[in-house]
Amino acid sequence: MKETNALKDQLYAEDSDHTSKGLQRRNFLKLAGGGLAGVALLNFASCNKDDGPDINGNEFYFGSGDIAILNYAYALEQLEAAFYIEVANKPFSGMSDLEKQLLTDVRDHEVAHREFFKAALGRGAINSLEFDFSAVNFSSRDSVLGTAKVFEDLGVSAYNGAGWLIKDEQYLLLAGKIVSVEARHAAVIRDLISNGSFANSEVIDSNGLDVSNSPTKVLQAAAPFIKSKVDVRDLPTY
Amino acid sequence: MNLQNIFESISQVDPEFNERISPRRQAIRNMFNLGQKVSLAALPLAVTALFNKAYGQSAPTDVNGVLNYALTLEYLEAEYYTIGSSTGGLIPSGPATEAIATIRDHEVAHVEFLKGVLGSNAVAKPNFDFTAGGAFANVFSDYDTFLALAQAFEDTGVRAYKGQAGILKGNRVVLTAALQIHSVEARHAAHVRSMRRARGGAAANQKPWITGANDSGIGAAVDPVYAGEDNVAQGGVDITTLTGVSGRFTPAIATQSFDEPLTAPAVLDIASLFIQA
User: Fold this and answer.
1) What Pfam families does the annotation carry (chain A) (predicted)?
2) Residue B224 falls within a domain, yes or no?
């Protein structure tokens, strides 16, 4: 849980990049190398491939423009789906019937999102990613729900933060249709941890606004869980 | 003001009104036959859908229009929870009171935020009538009615913001803020749904996510709030043809996985029931 706690701290911190004018690739490299508070950024191809793209050879190249954003969403949905499949396969000790029902629903939603993006992206889709959940103790309710909370809040912040980068109105609407379901998940997981924490000050600011993070920040947070080397060099971000 | 008077006065002004809404005449007559017993089982949210069908309604066309549209909905929610929270004996003490206070504070913050963004362009707060002309006479005295309307408002809010995404496309500041409000409304909706499930009764099987067209347990009267939520086709992909963990996705999972938008006229229809002329 050490990693998830560190990434939680980072995610819920103020977005200091918010006013910057878009993050250039070199800045991204710098940022990645700078070691953001306990978050390991190990596998992103952008970190170590500065000399000419090897796009055709990379099964995890996100593409550019809206396709890249859809692949970004697809990657996050793959992550969540893989996590909840494990959760449903190895129920933590003392899982109640209601918890089982809710977590199975959430699993199915995330798998539906994953399969939707795969179908919608067609040949533009990245391959199936491999994940590392070694930081999660699946027999522990605290560990599972704590990780689920981070993933759901992360997902909400990802869609909220990427919306304005989407050029196509239909893609934007699809992202909107999914993000509110992620927010429902986030509320439920939080209430399972502590009833009434569905939208507490950890995620909602004094203006009543939910979390929002750039693709760069979200991918940094997710990196410890992603084994595959993803190539996000052309992913729009800021 | 009551709905029967509205229909009568419209019929006087516009003799064709009854003809235009004729497919629903029987339903309207049935509702009035219930007289004083009009209650959750016959919520009149469907009624303004008839007005809309008959007359149409304007929708936002620019960024300020969307912001004022959002502000109107937030005014409604903020006042609703403010009255509810301050009504003694309505909400059980403990977690329920705390949750409603949390939601109230967010809706009040949304109002202030949107007014701040709009400045002198902000529309004024309408006068609300949460009894909708008497149809919900017990909205602030019966906790289940209060929660049922809260759920309808939250689920409507989630759908309303989604419906305006196109106008805000590419707008870093406004679209992002709208999305940040939108997901808060979804968190509220999930929590209120869970509160209703805990109450049992008609809401005993309520899930935090929306299953099909109108899973509220409230009745056909809130159909306009959930119209179209049974859609299973996303971006040209029929979700029920895709394979999940155990076979193809059911329509229930397919509809829960995606929240649907509502058009501005449909939302204003619902909201206008609670706005005094």
Assistant:
1) Ferritin_2
2) no
